[in-house]
């Protein structure tokens, strides 16, 4: 999965940059358009945790939106890897699961927040802006 | 016995043509605006506000009016008035057919009575089959979720049409996605459909025209729909502190092979097409 805009984090805009990581292209399309509409800039998309880590290193986005259930390297592993690389990384989990135990575990492991699918754009915007504040 | 929408029932009996079905569906739809459309029409909400409530409905299993009140966009009296106006203007499908001169009142009455009897028998048969099955409660839960989620997630209805216990040829159900949960309790939930239904589901989910949705994206969207469905099943059936893991959507298995391993297959009828809801453990 390639970075968007050739991997360059555009400095000409004040829009917060987001790396979107989900193995579903359909979900990425949907989320990307909702993020753009909410004033964020999607600078990269990744289809698994390994790609997410590689892109995080290159792009250094303001936020990472990370799916939990993915092939190869899943969201839990990617969360740990990204935080090992950058303990200040702002990672928000995006998952369809959402049981209490799941949410607590992700937050304990360093995720800044947890969003449940299907995405409510308004909730997503509010949560992401809180995480950025 | 498969429970059918009235339009499909009349079509199969040769009482209406496909063109008449489409025209009547269109007219009925126009007479039955969504609450948000009505609120915009009456100047109570802007289009953006109605869209905001609809988006939240996609994510939460709640009614439009409740969300509007919570957000302070409508008060209870306004919601009540909108519901009354919606009910007053609503035309039944059969009524539209009579108004359009497609059926006379007597033929419609007779067809409605037969349809009701068939529906009742089908529902009883389904309830009986599920009650006697170890996966019955789970299948019932997943079916009710589909009925509630389809309007919110896909903008259309669906209704259970019965348990499918005969062969499930892959040619009839070529696209299957399922998600598996493992842990204290293992669960499988899947959907299966044909090509046309797959495309219609994906376009409804992604809100995009058909020409922009390639087949790979359509299959992917089916997996995401199953993901969302599984998320709701997990939240509604597993305890909050349950320890479990989910797999990404699996597209490699056929409906028949999942049923061979003990999954239940329920047919769902929707204006987008026919689907199989697969529920296993």
Automatic annotation (TrEMBL), chain A:
Domain of life according to the entry: Bacteria
Matches recorded under Gene3D superfamilies: 3.40.50.2300
Positions of modified residues (4-aspartylphosphate): 67
InterPro entries from the UniProt entry: Bact_response_regulator, CheY-like_superfamily, Sig_transdc_resp-reg_receiver
Residue intervals of the Response regulatory domain: 17-132
Pfam families assigned to the protein according to its UniProt record, in alphabetical order: Response_reg (PF00072)
Protein's UniProt keywords contain Phosphoprotein: yes
GO BP annotations, alphabetical order: phosphorelay signal transduction system
SUPFAM superfamilies for this protein: CheY-like
Sorted UniProt keywords: Phosphoprotein
Protein name in the entry: Two-component system chemotaxis response regulator CheY
Species per Swiss-Prot/TrEMBL record: Pseudoxanthomonas taiwanensis J19
């Amino acid at each position: 999965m390639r970075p968007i805009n050739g991997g360059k984090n555009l400095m000409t805009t004040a829009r917060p940059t987001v790396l979107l990581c989900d193995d579903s292209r359909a979900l990425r399309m949907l989320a990307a358009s909702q993020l753009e509409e909410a004033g964020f800039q999607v600078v990269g998309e990744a289809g698994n945790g390994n790609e997410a880590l590689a892109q995080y290193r290159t792009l250094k986005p303001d936020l990472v939106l990370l799916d939990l259930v993915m092939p190869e390297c899943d969201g839990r592993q990617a969360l740990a890897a990204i935080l090992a690389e950058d303990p200040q990384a702002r990672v928000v989990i995006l998952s369809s699961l959402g049981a209490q135990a799941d949410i607590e575990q992700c937050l304990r492991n360093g995720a800044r927040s947890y969003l449940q699918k299907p995405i409510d754009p308004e909730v997503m915007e509010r949560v992401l802006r809180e995480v950025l504040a | 016995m498969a429970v059918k929408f009235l339009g499909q029932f009349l079509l199969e009996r040769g009482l209406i043509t496909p063109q008449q079905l489409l025209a009547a569906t269109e007219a009925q739809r126009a007479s039955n605006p969504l609450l948000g459309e009505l609120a915009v029409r009456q100047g109570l909400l802007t289009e953006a506000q109605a869209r905001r409530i609809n988006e939240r409905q996609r994510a939460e299993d709640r009614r439009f009016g409740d969300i509007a009140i919570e957000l302070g966009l409508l008060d209870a009296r306004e919601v009540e008035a909108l519901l009354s106006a919606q009910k007053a203007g609503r035309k039944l499908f059969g009524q539209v057919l009579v108004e359009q001169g497609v059926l006379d009142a007597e033929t419609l009455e007779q067809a409605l009575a037969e349809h009701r009897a068939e529906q009742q028998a089908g529902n009883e048969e389904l309830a009986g089959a599920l009650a006697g099955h170890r996966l019955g409660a789970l299948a019932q839960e997943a079916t009710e979720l589909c009925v509630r989620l389809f309007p919110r997630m896909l903008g259309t209805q669906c209704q259970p049409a019965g348990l499918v216990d005969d062969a499930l040829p892959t040619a009839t159900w070529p696209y299957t996605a399922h998600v598996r949960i493992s842990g204290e309790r293992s669960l499988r939930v899947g959907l299966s459909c044909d090509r046309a239904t797959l495309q219609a589901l994906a376009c409804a989910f992604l809100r995009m025209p058909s020409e922009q949705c390639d087949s790979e994206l359509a299959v992917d969207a089916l997996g995401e729909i199953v993901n969302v469905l599984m998320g709701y099943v997990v939240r509604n059936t597993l305890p909050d502190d349950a320890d479990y893991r989910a797999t990404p959507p699996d597209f490699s298995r056929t409906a028949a092979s999942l049923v061979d391993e003990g999954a239940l297959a329920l047919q769902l009828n929707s204006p987008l097409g026919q689907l199989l809801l697969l529920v296993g453990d």
